[in-house]
């Protein structure tokens, strides 16, 4: 439980008002990264954790969306692609990431109660969720759709291969990520070209929601339902009505089960075709974070079965271990990520799987320390991949190291 080293990682990645995921590979503020970072930071510096979230929400768009990147003006434009010049959206990108922020805000408040902090962020969180539940409900089922793979946070997931096949790859751009990471660990040039094409088309539409890639992601929506539950608790602490948030959470959870549940698992749905994607990815395990999930026993059986091997491998594999294209080292196509392990552990605790949750906690702590807080790891060997001194890996280490 190397909390000293984990703290040093977060200190080294602190810019003064926010934390970068990695000084080299990701030199700006990322949305869902900052939520996990705040959850860890609250144990060392609640004030800094509050600043992390306030900084992120200071960049919220008028329509309620929280951008997936807030660019650091002191960082050279050529340090990251696509940078602010590409997005043409001022100091932010134009897409979003998974809505884990309300849960982070609540956790930070509980570490050191600060009513003013809650009061400042509550209306911003409400606007954020209303944007997702309103303008992003393309399928009409009450689920928020993502319009770019990066919005899921699971950028290179095999679940996006089908919907992405409709997108012609862009050309003529320079990949900055390969300057800081091994090509074998990163998305292919063809996939990256599709990501750039989608982002450029979205930008050129003046960020009108829609496009060639419109997908209902079970992980994204499970986190939205959980965020509404957290928002209900925030409202109660502020003396405000909370029923609307609990009702919103229940509607999203119901839509998840009715629309994306099939044969013991939650799959993504391609809204353009109406079809479920066939790949078993870790996104389908994230509904475990919902405490009243009726299908939890069946989902736990899949999680502990041969596809994910939960409790017998390192962390939570991002993709089906039995799939012929499983890759233990390539970005979201097999490796285990520490934030996903943290979320799944929360789900295990909700559903009474305390022994399995403890095994997962111990493994996450040991693997994070052994890999120098790697971005992600091989679920079969525990070998670190991606960049090192990664902020959310250090942050979840700080949280998991706390006494029960």
From TrEMBL:
<feature type="domain" description="Mannosylglycerate hydrolase MGH1-like glycoside hydrolase">
    <location>
        <begin position="26"/>
        <end position="393"/>
    </location>
</feature>
<dbReference type="InterPro" id="IPR012341">
    <property type="entry name" value="6hp_glycosidase-like_sf"/>
</dbReference>
<dbReference type="GO" id="GO:0016798">
    <property type="term" value="F:hydrolase activity, acting on glycosyl bonds"/>
</dbReference>
<keyword id="KW-0326">Glycosidase</keyword>
<dbReference type="Pfam" id="PF22422">
    <property type="entry name" value="MGH1-like_GH"/>
</dbReference>
<dbReference type="InterPro" id="IPR054491">
    <property type="entry name" value="MGH1-like_GH"/>
</dbReference>
<dbReference type="InterPro" id="IPR008928">
    <property type="entry name" value="6-hairpin_glycosidase_sf"/>
</dbReference>
<keyword id="KW-0378">Hydrolase</keyword>
<protein>
    <submittedName>
        <fullName>Trehalase family glycosidase</fullName>
    </submittedName>
</protein>
<comment type="similarity">
    <text>Belongs to the glycosyl hydrolase 63 family.</text>
</comment>
<dbReference type="InterPro" id="IPR004888">
    <property type="entry name" value="Glycoside_hydrolase_63"/>
</dbReference>
């Amino acid at each position: 439980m190397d909390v000293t080293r984990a703290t040093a990682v977060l200190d080294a990645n602190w810019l003064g008002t926010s934390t970068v995921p990695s000084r080299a590979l990701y030199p700006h503020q990322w949305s869902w990264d900052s939520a996990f970072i705040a959850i860890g930071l609250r144990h060392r510096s609640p004030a800094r954790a509050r600043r992390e979230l306030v900084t992120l929400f200071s960049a919220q768009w008028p329509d309620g969306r929280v951008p997936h990147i807030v660019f650091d003006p002191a960082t050279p434009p050529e340090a990251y692609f696509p940078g602010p010049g590409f997005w043409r959206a001022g100091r932010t990108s134009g897409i979003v990431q998974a809505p884990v922020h309300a849960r982070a805000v609540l956790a930070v408040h509980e570490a050191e109660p600060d009513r003013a902090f809650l009061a400042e962020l509550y209306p911003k969180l409400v606007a954020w969720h209303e944007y997702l539940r309103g303008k992003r409900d393309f399928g009409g089922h009450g689920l928020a759709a993502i319009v770019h793979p990066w919005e899921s946070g699971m950028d290179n997931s095999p679940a996006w291969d089908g919907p992405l096949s409709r997108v012609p790859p862009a050309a003529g751009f320079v990949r900055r990520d390969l300057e800081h990471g091994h090509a074998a660990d990163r998305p292919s040039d063809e996939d990256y070209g599709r990501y750039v094409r989608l982002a450029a088309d979205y930008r050129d539409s003046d960020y009108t929601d829609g496009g060639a890639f419109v997908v209902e992601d079970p992980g994204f929506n499970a986190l939205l339902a959980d965020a509404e539950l957290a928002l209900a608790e925030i409202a109660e602490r502020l003396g405000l009505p909370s029923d609307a948030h609990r009702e919103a959470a229940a509607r999203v959870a119901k839509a998840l089960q009715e629309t994306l549940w099939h044969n013991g698992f939650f799959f993504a749905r391609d809204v353009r075709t109406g079809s479920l994607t066939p790949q078993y990815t870790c996104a389908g395990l994230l509904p475990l974070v919902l405490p009243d999930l009726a299908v939890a026993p069946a989902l736990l059986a899949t999680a502990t079965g041969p596809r994910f091997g939960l409790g017998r491998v390192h962390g939570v594999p991002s993709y089906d271990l039995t799939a012929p294209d499983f890759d233990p080292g390539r970005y979201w196509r097999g490796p285990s990520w520490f934030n996903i392990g943290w979320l799944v552990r929360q789900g295990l605790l909700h559903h009474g799987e305390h022994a399995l949750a403890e095994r997962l906690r111990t493994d996450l702590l040991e693997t994070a320390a052994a890999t120098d807080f790697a971005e992600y790891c091989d679920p079969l060997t525990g070998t670190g991949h991606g960049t090192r001194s990664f902020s959310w890996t250090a942050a979840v280490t700080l949280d998991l190291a706390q006494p029960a």
